[in-house]
Amino acid sequence: MIAVMEVTESEKQDEREDRSDPKTQVESLVLVIVTNLVTIYIVTGPFSSLYHHPPHHNNNFNSILQELNATKSQLAASHSLLSELHRRLNSTNLLVRALLIDLTTRQQDKQYSRNNNGKRSSNEELNLALASYKLPFGYSQWIGSDEIHSPIGAVCLMFQDELNQYMSYDIGSECLADEVFAQMLVSKGCEPLPKRRCHPKSPKGFVESNQDLQDSLWEISPDSNIVWDPYTCKSLKCLIERKNNKGYCKDCFDLQGKEKGRWIFDYGGLDFGIDQVLGAKRSDSTIRIELDIGGGTETFAARMKERNVTIITSTLDLDSPFSHFIASRELIPIHLSISQRLPFFENTLDIVHSMEFIGNWLPETMLEFLPYDVYRMLRPGGIFWLEHFFCFESQVNGTYLPMFDRVGFNRLRWHAGRKLDHDGIQKNEWYISALLVKPVI
């Protein structure tokens, strides 16, 4: 009995100590307050009818349901109002952010103008071109981010000195005529180039063409329509006269010479005729859109244009104004190399053509990327017209025939023959001309 009393006294002592603890007192007080608030809400709130009216009466039960439905409607209305207020608040917040970004940019430009008399160093301009920027309206579900990055290639970052030189210009002024230097960067894989805020030099004495489309395909435009500063030749006459020199597409500027007869006849060997190739397509198919890779001065596109087929030409200005020349013929050039994924959507092109531009000067792995990209862009039944693809004799059947088969093309025509110029004979180089078809599933 004495032991029991001792335990009881101990428990009472613990209870007194707990009550004297401030933390315990606060917790108890909070518990009492919360309990009272819940009780008051239940008794006086929307559920008070449960206590004032016996639940077994039907009329009372219907009244309770009506009150519950009314409460539910009020909650739904409140939720809609809150959503609308949230949307307006978010829009206002985004607008303020956009205004702040714009204000910050303007202040930075003014500060640069004050410090540099309107000039910006190449490092500063390059950093702006490479930076990421927050989207004015916040997160975009289409991008999957709240910021956007400049699409400059990672390879560009390997050539900081060249990039700084390329970006040395005054904002809003005339760009340097440095296409040859830019071409070097593009050929290394640095594309697209980041120069954005200067004006390319315009030709003096530009003459608008008023010729008929068919005439403009074969007429040479005036020298005054081309900016010659970056190139070795300073006139079209010079370009035509260098056709006997060594190099890429040296004779293709003479539209009244060898170019005039290209792709008219099909000799059954390495040279295919356009009409024969178009006739190789299914009789129920149409050909409307094509891509020509490395098209020179685009006599191929001119021939296709005569047959109501639109050609887009990827070209590089290799010490010659190919892009200007192509545009003067009322044709469409785009300036890019084949080191990147070509900017066309899947299953959209009828024919992809390339002549004497693709060959074993490219590493085999990189070269294999290209036919896969061509396959991606072609519509089912589309044709990859590969013309005068150059390689060594041992590579014809040992490397490239298996490569094109591996990509998944069916061979419609395949011809291989020795390259008969001096280098071809000395190095045992061969040409491949082929029509490769994307299968129809």
At a glance:
This protein is an alpha/beta fold and 441 residues long. Helix content is 44%, strand content 14%. The protein has helices spanning 2-20, 22-44, 49-52, 58-116, 122-130, 160-166, 179-187, 213-216, 236-241, 274-279, 299-305, 322-328, 364-377, 393-407, 422-427; strands spanning 132-134, 147-149, 289-293, 310-315, 332-335, 349-355, 378-392, 410-418, 429-437.
Which features would summarize this protein structure in a list?
7-stranded mixed beta sheet, two-stranded antiparallel ribbon, 9 strands, extended, 441 residues, 15 helices, alpha/beta, single chain
Structural write-up:
The chain has a seven-stranded mixed beta sheet with strand order 5-4-3-6-7-9-8. A two-stranded antiparallel sheet has the order 1-2. The protein has helices at 2-20, 22-44, 49-52, 58-116, 122-130, 160-166, 179-187, 213-216, 236-241, 274-279, 299-305, 322-328, 364-377, 393-407, 422-427, and strands at 132-134, 147-149, 289-293, 310-315, 332-335, 349-355, 378-392, 410-418, 429-437. It has 441 residues and is an alpha/beta fold. Strand 3 (289-293), helix 11 (299-305) and strand 4 (310-315) form a beta-alpha-beta unit.
pLDDT averaged over residues? 78
Please compute the radius of gyration using only Cα atoms: 38 Å
Write the element-wise H/E pattern from the N-terminal end onward.
Answer: HHHHHEEHHHHHEHEHEEHEHEHE
| Biggest sheet record | 7 strands, mixed
How much of the sequence lies in strands comes to 5-15%
N→C terminal distance: 97 Å
Helical residues, percent: 40-55%
What topology, given as strand order, has the largest sheet? Answer: 5-4-3-6-7-9-8
Q: How would you classify the helix and strand content by structural class?
A: alpha/beta
Supply the number of helical segments. 15
Spans where pLDDT lies below 50 across 5 or more residues: 1-8, 47-53
- Overall geometry comes to extended
Report the strand count.
Answer: 9
